[in-house]
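[job 4417] fold queue: 2 targets
>>> target A
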Amino acid sequence: MPDIALRLALWDGSQHDLGRDPLVTVRLSSMGALRHFVPPSLDNLADGYVSGRFDVEGRAQDIVEVASQLAHQSVPRRGRFGRLLSLGQHDRASDHRAIEHHYDVSNDFYRLWLGEAMVYSCAYFPSGTETLNAAQNAKLDHILAKLMLKPGERLLDIGCGWGALVIRAAEKWGAQAVGVTLSRKQFELAGQRVADAGLAGQVEIRLQDYRDIDERDGQFDKISSVGMFEHVGLNHLPDYFAKIHALLKDGGLVLNHGITSTDAGSGGSPLGAASFIHKYVFPNGELPHISRALRDMQTGGLEALDVECLRRHYARTLTFWSENFEQNGNEIRRMVGETTYRVWRIYLAGCAHAFAQNWVSLYQVLACKEGTSESLNPTPWSRAYLYTKPTGSGHPN
């Protein structure tokens, strides 16, 4: 029996340690709760905790580590990825419901663990030692530098969240920006943040499906999509990239920043965690392998120019979020209730573990319209521009 830092406290008062110096205690109130341990998949364990079948004491990170060790005992390594089934047609109505489920919990809820910047995507740690806020600003600038954004250019941000990227693009880079989201709560707060920054004439926030953006409104010099294509659906990725192609000017650039599966078959969730995530957190979410994302990008008429893996950066970002969540746990519990508190507590710590273990990854892909004309690709011959601090107007200080 492996040494697992777990203590089981049973309904009859007995205690059983599965290893030396247990860091986590599971308190089972009845024999029926044991069904969540047979088999001890991440789905079963998480569902039992969220539904209140048992209570768990310990740090969230330790809880997830123990659960992962238990799940490893019952899932052969070659079978650690379960297939992700297509969960819906990803039409406008179903996608709208999925976004509402995830993002419309409460703006105040997200603020408690994201911080005042309200950036809900992987941060960028140039040295690995930055604070979360510094790393989030670095991420925004890293994206805008890759896009070679210039003053006066028109930027579209698909899935703009609470507006951090479009505000940064306008305020520090001098762009004209449009951000679209399906979340009403995000739309309302993003619009308020734009107004508070005095950027109402420079930034437009729309409550709109990206598929409904009319090309007759004008094409965009640059397009960003950060943490959004996970909601598109595997079978719809070529259409997603084709729509971006249609909205992008010749000679423009697009950056897609998104989570990917590390299963080459674009399957999916390790150690049986898919059901929990789809049931409680991300309805209709589907993750492609990076190879499929690149293939479908090409099918949509876009040429990949630069591919950067930020898996380690997301593991660190999620660790920050999980720690913030733990520090504000009592307030979060009062705000959203016990069940939602448990869902997000285990979700954030579990995702930090998943990225650290390379069960999932994250890539930024910079692309232009495909074709042989030199005018379609505006990037320099060297990547040096990505890491050399530019000078002149329109760039952050």
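>>> target B
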Amino acid sequence: MHWCPRCRGVLLSPGPIDAPPERRNYRWVARRPGRAGHPSRGTAIGRPSAGTPRYTEIPRWGLRDRPAPDREADRHHHPRPLSTLTRWTQAALFATAVLFAVSAVAESVRYLILLRNRTRLIEPPLLWFSDALVNTAALFALIMALVAAVATLGWLIEARRAAFAAAGRRDPRSPRMLALGCLIPVVNLIWPGVFLTEMVSGRTDPRARIAVRVWWAAWVFGGLVTVAALYWRTADSLQAKADGVLFTAFADAVAAAVAMLTLWVVRTLEGRDLRGRRRLAQRWVIAVDPATPLIEPVHPGTTATVSTAADAESADSPDGADRAPQEVVAK
């Protein structure tokens, strides 16, 4: 209560709000839901209720009590192929995105050098540095992309096996089929999205399905951009080659974005956000009673008549009837 129930005055505690418990001159009182005030007069304090509390149906809310993982089973679990590489999936994807971003910057610098070369000669050291940066960044980006692809394939096999095992089923796709569908060019534009969609089909959280669809569209778009960039390199004219350098930078930027989207999908399916933090589920509790305000609202001031000793003496006087009573306004 923050307001006096009689005079409607503000009840302020003399102690500060953030005082430690030993300095507080008030205490918290816990009451059962639906009993905002004191118990009714007809109910004896401390007397048990008439019946045993029970539910008329299975409650659909509550706290999650997940069993602790069986460490002994994990200890005697035989390591699967690619299990060591699978643990580095997220790091490999992040490194792939960084290397493709560096490659995009290198291609952009190369294009700026070509623009400057239209009117001036380029110093040989600068040209050598640009060539080394472009070739090195592209080589390391392709190698890391291959490592990330194999690691993500291992993660997909383990994640699908765990998802189907939680549903009491067995993964209908063999590891060989998953590998062929994810690693064969052109074919891997379709099947990875199918594999991920099958894995999240039984989830009630729509964020996983939305993430898979967004990644699938970006994955197909990235594949088309890569094919266009490779085809552009077959041009013969100087202007087409210069435009191919700029388009290669765009393709590298798209590849970096696809790698980050892949990392986002992996962490989303694991119940984490893009930064790797555990995503907390929101739990809603059914409220059966109407909501009541915790703080009594402010009521307008009331007028009260206060009788004093002077009024009592003047009541016996002849002119006491003409004397008006004093008024006090409570604010």
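[job 4417] complete. Note on B: Residues 39-45, 304-310, 320-331 have pLDDT under 50 and may be disordered.
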